[in-house]
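Protein modeling request. Please complete all fields; requests missing the sequence field cannot be processed.
Requester role: graduate student
Desired output: 3D structure, token encoding
Chains: 1
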Amino acid sequence: MTTSTLPIETANADFDEMNGFLGSLFHHPVDSEAQEAERPIFEPERALQIRDGSDLVATAIAFTRQLGVPGGDLAAAHVSMVGVAPTHRRRGLLTAMMHHQLRQIYDSRREPVAVLWASEGQIYPRFGYGLASQRFHVSGETAELRLPAPTPGEGRLRLDRPTDRQADLARVYEHVRADRPGWSVRDDRWWRYVLVDPQAHRGGATERRVVLHEGPDGVDGYGLFRTKAEWDDGGPNSLTTVDEVVASTPAGYLAMWRMLLSLDLTRRVAWMRAAVDEPLLRLLNEPRRLNCRLVDALWVRVVDVPAALAARRYATDVDVVIEVTDHLLPENTGRWRLRGGPAEATCTPAIGPADLACDVRCLGELYLGGVNPTALADAGRLRELCPGALTAAGPAFTWHRAPSAMEIF
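Delivered output (409 residues):
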């Protein structure tokens, strides 16, 4: 790989040009309806571009959003629209943009972490991003699946158009989001983006619908889904594709799934973003029929070590000195004393010897509480310098809910 000498442009970018460029790289046509929904969330002042003459050859952007982390919310740069033209691969353009972006985020002191979805898992670890959450990709048959029988007073289900119930969806989502690391805050712009449903993106399926669960106090759950009619020699074999299921009560969750798995003429279900601790897997009579496949979800880059470690909460009390290495942001390299627990945390420079040692990528993997520190130690990624430090401090980095991701940004 050569080192790029092409300059990075940070002036206001043109959305239509960037959107068309990314569409060509990810092999999908530009849809006007989707494009108009994406336009309001675009932040031209946070876009990076590289040109070769007049040709756009590389892009990246960060969205300004809050991310749910253990114990609260944190300003996090949501990195997206990253791509390099096939004519300019292996020239160092991606490396130059990622370095530039991280330095921008660090110098602004606005966002202690960055987060992204990776098109390929091998790309972003070299820039310090760690795999912080995983998801189950569900693709199974429903004919033999059974859920517990309904009980009196479970509530009522209703079907509607998602855009007509945005206020209800937002209220339920925000209530549940408060206890789930990895879910991003959605303002009105982001809700419109999430709910846009261009026909060109349906793949022959129906428009997206929402099932709402109404409990004693009103709507307390929703499920976004669509169906696709298919028939074979044995009869109906239609597919239900689930996008989101959000419920604040077990009764609402169970009632919605009972409907989603038993729609007339459907025999299969697909769900791409199931949490690894999804209750459905504990409710079904035969969860193996879902054919759950574990895949990556959110990748986290700790940009400002002391600010990030102090911003989240910890499952147990912890007092540990961590030696961190960061080749891209040397300000993070050093020994940091983390003291915290379920209520508060501080992280300050340490003078004494370190108890644990790792690189900044490892901190990203630990950050949302979804990775057991012992597993990272067994992989040689986290080193115990003081005997017993891992046993004492490790449980603090976990959380009572696994991190998950509700949307691809």
